[in-house]
């Protein structure tokens, strides 16, 4: 019982510390946006606007108040699931609701593809039965990790769009603001997934190898437990927390990569919205995306903590 309480306290403490880190990260984003050169209101109103017009609009939006007061007000709205308004007076919630489905249509398949490919390659790699494949995977994953999303996207366009002419290089929108056909999702998804496959494959393989080396798993292997049963019943539960935590990291990387990838492919998603919002110094939009991404990562890390605690209890 004491062990269960101790693990629960540890998970709760980790959750509180991550919430505090998320709060600090949000404030850091707001400060960084505020320190960027340029005036978003001036850009919004145009060159013909007078200083009085700009000052009046700034006052109407409350942008002349101290940054800490504005952040406290915005954070209070965040607790009510209200992300505030853009510099144009539009609802940030409405903007995200319009763009988020398109980005999820990229991010979710990219993460699923990352998990499936990384897991398959990691299991084969960690088995040690194909030394040549292990050496190839080691080099290939390092190379892939070193490639940023814009390089992968550029190479994908060069090969599949310009050379082979089998996939479109840009996204054309229909009347609903979504891509016209499914082929326009393929290259952006690959561009987001490939760098994450390299990273997660190495993490998954290391977690599986570490679990396989544990004494009680080695004892089960000596007792004649079959390879499949050994992996499913013993190795996977031990490696799962690390794998989930790695995927949680990939969520943030995919969202960050979406800013570049969606801009390159003219894809109508949240990433392109963030890129445009940074250009116009629209703090509320950027902070809202960071908050949503941070919450998803926090939940995945909490799941990883729960899995880790469960495996430790089983090992007792």
Number of strands: 0
Strand content: under 5%
Distance between the termini: 12 Å
- Largest sheet entry: none
Ranges where pLDDT stays below 50 over 5 or more residues in a row are none
Task: Count up the helices.
Answer: 12
Report helical residue fraction.
Answer: over 70%
Overall pLDDT level: 85
Radius of gyration over C-alpha positions, nearest whole angstrom? 23 Å
Element-level helix/strand string: HHHHHHHHHHHH
Shape: flat
- Protein structure class: mainly alpha
Would you mind describing this structure in some detail?
It is a single chain. With 316 residues, the protein is mainly alpha-helical. Helices cover 79% and strands 0% of the residues. It is built from twelve helices and no strands. The protein is flat and about 80 Å long. It starts with a helix and ends with a helix. The mean pLDDT is 85.
Search tags:
mainly alpha; 316 residues
């Amino acid at each position: 019982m004491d062990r269960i309480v101790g693990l629960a306290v540890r998970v709760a403490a980790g959750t509180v510390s991550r919430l505090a880190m998320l709060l600090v990260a949000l404030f850091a984003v707001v400060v960084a946006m505020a320190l960027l050169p340029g005036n978003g209101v001036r850009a919004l109103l145009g060159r013909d606007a007078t200083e009085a017009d700009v000052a009046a609009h700034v006052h109407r939006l409350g942008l002349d108040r101290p940054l800490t007061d504005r952040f406290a007000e915005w954070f209070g709205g965040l607790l009510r699931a209200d992300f505030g308004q853009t510099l144009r007076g539009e609802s940030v919630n409405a903007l995200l609701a319009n763009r988020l489905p398109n980005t999820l249509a990229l991010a979710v398949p990219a993460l699923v593809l990352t998990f499936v490919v990384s897991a398959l390659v990691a299991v084969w790699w960690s088995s040690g039965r194909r030394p040549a494949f292990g050496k190839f995977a080691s080099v290939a994953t390092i190379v892939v990790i070193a490639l940023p999303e814009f390089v992968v996207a550029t190479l994908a366009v060069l090969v599949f769009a310009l050379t082979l002419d089998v996939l479109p290089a840009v996204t054309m929108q229909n009347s609903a603001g979504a891509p016209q056909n499914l082929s326009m999702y393929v290259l952006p998804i690959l561009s987001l997934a490939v760098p994450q496959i390299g990273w997660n494959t190495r993490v998954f393989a290391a977690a599986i190898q570490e679990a396989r080396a544990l004494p009680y798993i080695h004892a089960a292997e000596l007792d004649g437990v079959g390879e499949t049963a050994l992996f499913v019943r013993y190795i996977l539960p031990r490696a799962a927390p690390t794998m989930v935590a790695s995927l949680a990291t990939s969520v943030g990387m995919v969202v960050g990569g979406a800013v570049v990838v969606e801009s390159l492919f003219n894809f109508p998603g949240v990433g392109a919205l963030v890129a445009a919002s940074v250009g116009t110094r629209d703090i509320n939009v950027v902070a809202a995306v960071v908050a949503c991404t941070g919450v998803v990562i926090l939940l995945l890390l909490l799941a990883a903590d729960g899995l880790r605690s469960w495996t430790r209890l089983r090992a007792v």
